[in-house]
Amino acid sequence: MSLIAINRYSQQVKLLYSDLKFHDLSLFKIWTSFITLFAFYIGIEPFITLWVQPPLTNTQLHYCFTILGMFITLFPNTTAQKSLADFPIQEKQDSGTSSKDELLDIVFRELKHQTESQHYYRQNGLTLYDLAQYIGFAEHTMSNALNQVGTIGFYDFINDYRIKEAKEKLVSSPSRAVIDIAMDVGFNSKSAFYTAFKKREQLSPSQYRKSQVKTH
User: Fold this and answer.
1) Whole-angstrom Cα distance, residue 165 to residue 41?
2) One domain, residues 113 and 42
């Protein structure tokens, strides 16, 4: 049971974190197997000695316990891995929401917070891999959080922040060149900025600036 619990925790850690060198539980699993084998040997040896006639030699007895103990300790480990492969995160019995969904929700909230507070979107050519390295989550987990919780793709997610800041700068700095603002907020070309901006606002950056100047 200990090995099953360790494997389940390992799966959750792998799902969440991108850097696993501080979360490797292999050594702990080896020690758990060793302790289980030793406890099994101490507990059952007196009974085997009484039941088996003629008594086995110490070498034969140790050999039998080693084989049997390895089977007992490794079988739950294999079973746990198979069951976890089919069901990576066990669903809660008292709720319709799985722990995996809750985990993705946490990742999405942290992703939004870090992107906003650290202004990662301002980096030209930013990729999902880059953002995963900055924040510390696994890349595939962040992708799942964006798609399932945010119902948005990575580049749309990043461009939303870029355009939001660009709109503020277009109004607050009316004489500043549009291309300079585009570069400041993370776009690497004027055409990419115009395409993304018009997709969201149905106006070009220049048209948006003029419309806001008139209203103010």
Assistant:
1) 67
2) no
